[in-house]
Design a protein that fits this description.
The chain has one helix spanning 7-33, and strands spanning 36-41, 54-57, 63-65, 71-76, 82-87, 94-98. It is α+β, with helices and mostly antiparallel strands.
């Protein structure tokens, strides 16, 4: 049995695979560096978790609501001078600036 290897097909596929690999790494790098995670926990003065509070970046579209333990977590592309605003029914709103 004799195998015939087409040399030109093999040689041209390696640069395409290298380009695809580096393109995949570049896309992964930009996605990872393009987002920031903001997380925390909201509690009242008696250290009880605040459920269902809305936490968002002021004058921006990113935000989340707290779960049953008062924990929130969301991703944003805004990196500097983030002003978090938390609101919940029955409490006054709270604002904190993150640098």
């Amino acid at each position: 049995m004799i195998y015939i290897i087409n040399y030109f097909t093999f040689v041209t596929s390696i640069p395409i695979m290298k380009f695809g690999f580096f393109l995949l790494l570049f896309i992964d790098y930009t996605v990872v560096n393009g987002q920031v995670v903001i997380s925390g926990k909201m509690i009242d003065l008696k250290n009880k978790p605040l459920r269902g509070a809305s936490v968002s970046i002021k004058d921006y579209y990113d935000g989340s609501a707290t779960d049953s333990r008062g924990v929130f977590r969301f991703f944003t592309t805004k990196k500097r001078n983030v002003e978090l605003q938390a609101t919940i029914s029955g409490y006054s709103s709270y604002t904190k600036i993150l640098y």
